[in-house]
Amino acid sequence: MVGCENSKKSDSDSNKEKCLSDDVINLDQGDPTVFQEYWMKKKDRCTVVIPAWDLMSYFSDTTNVCWFLEPELEKAIKALHGAIGNAATEERYIVVGTGSSQLCQAALFALSSLFEVKPVSIVAAVPYYSTYVEEASYVQSSLYKWEGDARTFDKNGPYIELVTSPNNPDGTMREPVVNRREDGKVIHDFAYYWPHYTPITRRQDHDLMLFTFSKITGHAGSRIGWALVKDVEVAKKMVQYLTINSIGVSKESQTRATTILNELTKTCRTQSESFFEYGYEKMKSRWERLREVVESGDAFTLPNYPQAFCNFFGKTISTSPAFAWLGYKEERDLGSLLKEKKVLTRGGDRCGCDKKYVRVSMLSRDNDFDVFIHRLATIKDLKCNQP
Ligand code: PMP
Fold it and tell me: Which domain of life is it from (predicted)?
């Protein structure tokens, strides 16, 4: 809470100043501070107090495959998915992780160690979430090997396809593209499959699905993610990885996540209080402002997303992804161009694409977003102005 108060002060104080100043704006990382205002309004409603004698053990429930998962968090996760209708939790094991980043690595370990032939190829369709490249290559494991774009993948042998839907960086809804079921496994990353980002059109029901607390509510600092896993052997292997890697997951974080997830579920049908109503309006208004600037000039491109009926909101809604996949109409390194304007973004080359695309975080604080829109407006006509 103290942290919140401090940020509140510095945010509002620096607001006007930042609009006038020419500070560097970092929209490279997807740090989800956009929702902080909503949580500030909750005041002490989601404050968690933990006495010193509590939560001291490594263990949570030794009868559970995931023995370090707090039973209350398990209930909260199931209740939230039930209320939103975005994923099936029945007949599945829940594995909690230190963010879904850790779970993705646990899943790569689990799935590849269960294949007979190694190394297992890891692929994702371009443009992909750039961190997958590091997650699949950093430790130079002999179990698996990063093979890049799933669309051009033609190697024989076992593979794992990472499918992010809606996709980071371009916000599109995705399905697997490699279709050799007999020797392939899929990890479905649903970090952004929540109604403030995209219409909930179906209840996802795959073998291995990843979710993260970070991108639902913005509490990335708690480092909580979860996997919904059908196969007990895969769940056990993931738990083995997490045990060796970090002997479980912080119980303080699990407790905080439980309180906040329960609040989401409790208020999700009350329009004035619902986080998802707030988040949807917030993201929608940012996208409208961005599109207005892009469409008023002739230099940039943005993807268009079809509207769809959202089962959660009970109406047809638009898509407002967490990242903007901004393109430049000419062959030019857009990341460098924006860097000259002191806006840091992630270059398309990091996502397996061309440098004329960049990934821009739409999840920053208001003042950074305002400055970004202002600076973009100053360069949108650049092409026309050039000789
Ligand atoms: N998957 C995707 C697609 C993401 O964008 C992110 C965060 N940028 C993650 C996973 C990881 O989230 P975390 O580790 O914070 O749970």
Answer: Eukaryota
Q: Is the ipTM of this complex over 0.95?
A: yes
- Report pTM: 0.94
Query: How many Å apart are CA 56 and CA 25, to the nearest integer?
Result: 40
| CB 160 within 8 Å of CB 122 | yes
Position in ligand 1 atom list of the atom nearest CA 29: 8
Residues 6+ apart with CB under 8 A from 266: none
Q: CA 69, CA 355: separation in Å to the nearest integer? A: 42
Q: How far is the CA of 255 from the centre of ligand 1 (A)?
A: 20
Q: How far is CA 239 from the centre of its chain?
A: 22
Half-sphere exposure of 353 (CA within 13 A, CB side): 28
253 lines ligand 1 (CB under 6 A): no
> Closest residue (by CA) to atom 5 of ligand 1?
168
CA distance 248 to 189: 21
83-140 pLDDT, tens per residue?
Answer: 999 999 999 999 999 999 999 999 999 999 999 999 999 999 999 999 999 999 999 9
Give CA–CA dist 292/308, Å, rounded: 21
CB 95 near ligand 1, within 6 Å: no
Buried/exposed code over 321-358 (b: 16+ C-beta within 10 A; e: otherwise) = bbbbbbbbeeeebbbebbbebebbbbbbbbbbbbbbbb
164 lines ligand 1 (CB under 6 A): yes
Residue 258: half-sphere exposure toward Cβ, Cα within 13 Å: 16
Residue whose CA is at the smallest distance from ligand 1 atom 8: 30
